[in-house]
Amino acid sequence: MPALQLAGIRQFIGGACYVVFFLMKGFPLPKGREWRTVLVLSCLNFLFSNGLNTWGVQYISAGLAAIIAAIFPLWLVVIGLFGSKSKISFRAILGFIIGFAGVCIIFYEHLHDFLNSGFRLGIILSVIATWTWAFGSIYTKKQAANFNPYFSLGLQMLISGFFLIVFTNLTRNSIPLAAIPWQSWAAISYLVAFGSIFSFIAYLYALQNLSAEQTSIYAYVNPIVAVLLGWLIFSEKLTAFIAVGGAVTLFGVYLINKAYKLPLPEMPETEGV
Question: Looking at residue 151, what is its pLDDT?
Fold first, then answer.
């Protein structure tokens, strides 16, 4: 089935589960201008970030897509160089240099792949997705006090899922629900259950029982798991360039996260893949 249709259905069902849960708990819906924040984050965090990521992974390996998804803090440094009035710390700049060096190591063996238009499209879509996530993180940090981040997460998924479903139907980039094979429904069910609901419950449990530093480690473990599963399930190449480059990149990301103190509630959906 088309990737964007899969992303839309997954986000819509997952978001609906969140929204129903919080409404049953008595949480009020956003009011007035609060909807503007939710709508902006729906576009940045899910409509573009998760949607483009899901589309891009058709053309590149799951492990490579996961590593690209994890480098969004690098763009925070770039955005800060041009748009921030405050001075950027030495740790952030060092993290950017190390992270960029890691990306260069990873792509050294993929230089010939850029001759493939599909590979180029996958990389472009994945990189744009990380940019939108970076802008979403900055916007969240500015608006964090104005709404419940957990309830907002569900609303963002629900709204972006609805728009993706409408878009794919209007552009005829979808197939009838009855024509979707059971394998695709199984994948959607897995993404909703484990990618959205159970992972979120585990994340909240970790926040309550571990320090913020310990909880944030998951963001660095996730790409490693994706690379290993891609190798195990899809027989994707696991080379020294990916291993060393991935480790160097994640170390750079770690330094930037330490420098910027990224808001934890924004991190669960970085999984992307």
Answer: 80
State the Cα–Cα distance between residues 89 and 5, nearest whole angstrom.
41
Residues 6+ apart with CB under 8 A from 217: none
Can you read off the two tokens belonging to residue 68? 């690209």
Per-residue pLDDT tens over the stretch 208-221: 777 665 666 777 77
Q: Which two tokens stand for residue 153?
A: 């997460």
**Which ranges in 191-239 belong to alpha helices (H)?**
199-209, 212-215, 218-234
Res 150: pLDDT: 73
Span between the terminal Cα atoms of the chain, in Å: 16
Burial letters for 42-54: b for 16+ Cβ neighbours within 10 Å, e otherwise?
bbbbbbbbbbbbb
| Helix axes 117-143 and 62-70, enclosed angle (nearest 10) | 30
Classify the phi-psi angles of 237: left when phi > 0, otherwise alpha if psi is within -120 to 50, otherwise beta: beta
CA 205, 207, 208, 212 torsion-angle sign: positive
Residue type present at position 146: N
